[in-house]
Each structure stands twice: as structure tokens, then as C-alpha cells.
From TrEMBL:
EC number of the protein: 1.13.12.19, 1.14.20.7
Lineage summary: Bacteria, Pseudomonadati, Pseudomonadota, Gammaproteobacteria, Pseudomonadales
Organism expressing this protein natively: Pseudomonas tehranensis
Top EC class of this enzyme: oxidoreductase
Cofactor requirements of the protein: Fe(2+)
Name of the molecule in the record: 2-oxoglutarate-dependent ethylene/succinate-forming enzyme
Length: 321
């Protein structure tokens, strides 16, 4: 239990049922034992990663005043720039030593959900950088497709319809996030971490991390182990929403980022979340007489908003209004 499994998902882009089942079995085992694994054999090209990473570095090098033109605390649908210490993932530690950019599914101002002022629904707020918007919007779509391919494989192990997740991920509230972690020496105290220990909120996360390292995962024995960058892979982990769906058959595992010494770290997680009205309730195959449902039914939006309020002071203030 000292290294995460690496799963080749290239068979998911073919039609052989036995190959699909083999990959599904590997994913199922990793989700039960770890809640974390690497994937290789995916269709996101190295050239694409380089393009997105270059744009992320350009954005985070901008003056703070320029980045704050799309300040995330000034929107009700959680899009834009989050300054250093905006988040506090571990309540026992200082706010996180990182700055962020968040985007989601772009919904125009005349979309019914936007007109109804539904939370987490609205237009993206992009910086004014040449080439940024079309690249990021395309990368968002491609990462969503990759996430849904993984979820389709999970249905084989979970005993649910092949299109179970696809039907629930129409107009999703998935988030593409870009993160810059300044070097550790810039921390406000020795206790300030890049990202405090936490579990992810939602369904499934796909993470690109650069060569700086710093990601750590807590194994079932309570030990923190390194999850180093591996060329050509994404780190995949499950969130609390998937744990609820599976009645804790699948693990939502604590993890953290220790800011590297002397270098900047960049990462790009994609948080795949369903349509906000999706009911999150125990799957039929994950309950029986000996394992009744552990959690009450909720919706995707209700659950995410409750978790955002725990992490972001500005969300708590907005909800109190």
C-alpha cells in the first residue's frame, strides 16, 4: 500500500467486451482499496497539456489587480480567480498557499437556469489573454468526455445501466481548475500547506500535475504516501458524492499538497460533477439487508453548496444574506 495503481484505459476506446471488463475490474479494485489511481492510454495529448499549462503560467504571472478583474468572490456561480489564501481545505491549518482559476460549463445569460438564479450556473469569466478562451473551453469538453468514459467503465462493476452516469451528466456542474502553488518559503507560517488535508466533494477528479511533485495521499493504514507525477498520466480520485452513491463501497480518500521547496507548482484538476438536480442516493447494487443505505438522499447542488460553505468564507457570507 505504498504506491497507487496505474491503469491503462486504452481498451475503453475499443469495442471488446472482455477488455472493457478487465479495465472495469481494475478500476473497481482501485476504488475499493484506494479511492485513487493513475490512468494512462487516454486521448488527451501532451501537446494539449503543454498549451494549457503555458496559458496557466501566463495568467498567474499577471499583476494581481488584473487577475482580480475576475475575482471569484464577486460572483454567485463560483467562476474566476481565487487569490492566495481564499480557500481553507483543512480547518486545523492556515488558509491554503495557492491561487486558482475556476471555470465550468458556460451557460449564457438567457439560459433558464441562469434566469432562475440557480447556484453554480452561469457564464464563464475568462481573462483577456489571446487564445485563452477557445483553448480552455475545448479542454473542458475533452476532460468531461474522458471523465464520462471512466464512469461508463465503473457501471460494469457497480451493476448499473451503461448510460447511468451519461444521463445524469447532461449540462453538468463539472469544474476545470488551474492552480498555482508558490514556493514553500513564501508561506505565512510553517503550518501553511499548499492544500490542506481534505477529501474532494464530488464524483470523480482527474488531475494533471507538473514535475514539481508535492501531492500526498493517505492510505488505509493512515500513512501519507507520495503520489509523484508520472509522464502521460492523470491521477484519478473519487469524491464524497461517489462515496455516498456507492454506500462507501468506493473510498473518498484524504489527500494534501505540500508546497515544493524553491519552485512553483502548477496543477490542473478536473472535477466531474453531474447535473445539479441529480439525486444522490444509494445505488441498488451497493445495498442489501446487511448494508442498508448510510446516507439520506440529497441533490448534487445541495451537497456541493454545503461543502463549499465549509471551505470558502465568501460562500458562507453569501448564503447568510
Amino acid at each position: 500500500m505504498n504506491s497507487l495503481p496505474i491503469i491503462d484505459i486504452s481498451p475503453l476506446y475499443g469495442d471488446a467486451p472482455s477488455a472493457w471488463q478487465s479495465v472495469a475490474n481494475q478500476i473497481d479494485q482501485a476504488c475499493r482499496q484506494w479511492g485513487f489511481f493513475y490512468i494512462k492510454g487516454h486521448p488527451i495529448s501532451p501537446a494539449r497539456i503543454t498549451q494549457v499549462l503555458d496559458q496557466a503560467q501566463r495568467f498567474f504571472r499577471l499583476p494581481v489587480a488584473e487577475k482580480l478583474k475576475i475575482d471569484i468572490t464577486q460572483t454567485r456561480h463560483h467562476r474566476g480567480y481565487g487569490a492566495v489564501a481564499t480557500e481553507q481545505l483543512d480547518p486545523a491549518k492556515p488558509s491554503d498557499l495557492k491561487e486558482t482559476f475556476d471555470m465550468g460549463l458556460h451557460l449564457p445569460a438567457d439560459h433558464p437556469d441562469v434566469l432562475a438564479h440557480k447556484p453554480l450556473r452561469g457564464p464563464n469569466r475568462h481573462p483577456d489573454l489571446a487564445g485563452w478562451e477557445p483553448l480552455m473551453e475545448q479542454h473542458y469538453r475533452d476532460m468531461q468526455a474522458l471523465a464520462q468514459t471512466l464512469l461508463r467503465a465503473m457501471t460494469l462493476a457497480l451493476g448499473i445501466e451503461r448510460d447511468f452516469f451519461d444521463t445524469r451528466f447532461t449540462e453538468p456542474v463539472s469544474v476545470l481548475r488551474l492552480i498555482h502553488y508558490p514556493p514553500r518559503h513564501t508561506a505565512s507560517s510553517a503550518e501553511q500547506q499548499g492544500a490542506g488535508a481534505h477529501t474532494d466533494y464530488g464524483c470523480i477528479t482527474l488531475l494533471y500535475q507538473d514535475a514539481a511533485g508535492g501531492l500526498q495521499v493517505r492510505n488505509v493504514n493512515g500513512q501519507w504516501i507520495d503520489a509523484p507525477p508520472i509522464d502521460g498520466t492523470f491521477v484519478v480520485n473519487l469524491g464524497d458524492m461517489m462515496a455516498r452513491w456507492s454506500n462507501d463501497r468506493y473510498l473518498s480518500t484524504p489527500h494534501r499538497v505540500i508546497s515544493p521547496l524553491g519552485v512553483d507548482r502548477y496543477s490542473m484538476p478536473f472535477f466531474a460533477e453531474p447535473h445539479p438536480d441529480t439525486l444522490i442516493q444509494c445505488l441498488p447494487g451497493c445495498q442489501d439487508e446487511g448494508h442498508p443505505p448510510k446516507y439520506p438522499t440529497t441533490t448534487c447542488a445541495e451537497f456541493l453548496l454545503s461543502r463549499f460553505a465549509d471551505t470558502y468564507a465568501y460562500r458562507r457570507e453569501q448564503q447568510a444574506v
